[in-house]
Design brief:
alpha+beta, 5 helices, 27% helix
């Protein structure tokens, strides 16, 4: 399936461009987390999926490269994804809210470590600038608090024997 076969839009997906076009991305995320909390979904933000569409060179290049996979051949809106690593409360500073990401171009200056499968810890404040990160979105997946904690633990410590590859053994087979 190259594109959705549905004829109806999902009413839960909202375009907030008009409301947030002149505001920072953190203001959008603040109200999005508040909305999720009022609805009682999203595990207080923990393991919520954030989407970013960047205008910088790496982001624009990736979005343009994705166009060949789209049915309309237009650049994708999204160039980056992250998950929120901690619950959001009324005392949480969104600028320093921990996120987990696998960046192609890390903004925190820390090169992704291969032994961690490229998973970097960053903060939501890295994506505050609406001029660089023009498209932002937040997706909440329904799960229990226990499931969210297990998912975070797995994301932070994914390195298990069954997912390791012995390079030298594979080279010998080759």
């Amino acid at each position: 399936m190259r594109h959705s076969q549905t004829s109806n839009r999902n009413p839960a997906i909202k375009d907030c461009t008009g409301k947030y076009g002149k505001r920072t991305n953190l203001q959008f995320f603040n109200e999005a987390f508040s909305s999720l909390q009022k609805q009682g979904i999203g595990n207080r933000g923990m393991m919520t999926v954030g989407l970013i569409g960047s205008r910088d060179v790496p982001g624009h290049t990736l979005r343009t490269a994705q166009s060949m996979l789209r049915w309309d051949l237009r650049p994708s809106f999204w160039s980056h994804v992250f998950v929120v690593a901690e619950p959001v409360t009324s005392r949480t500073s969104l600028r320093s809210l921990p996120i987990l990401e696998v960046p192609l171009h890390p903004r925190n200056g820390i090169f992704p470590r291969p032994e961690c499968n490229g998973i970097n810890e960053g903060t939501l404040g890295l994506y505050e600038n609406k001029d660089i990160d023009a498209n932002v979105g937040l997706v909440a997946v329904s799960m229990s608090d226990e499931e969210a904690k297990k998912l975070k633990k797995r994301a932070m410590n994914w390195n298990q024997d069954r997912v390791r590859y012995n390079f030298w053994e594979m080279l010998g087979v080759w």
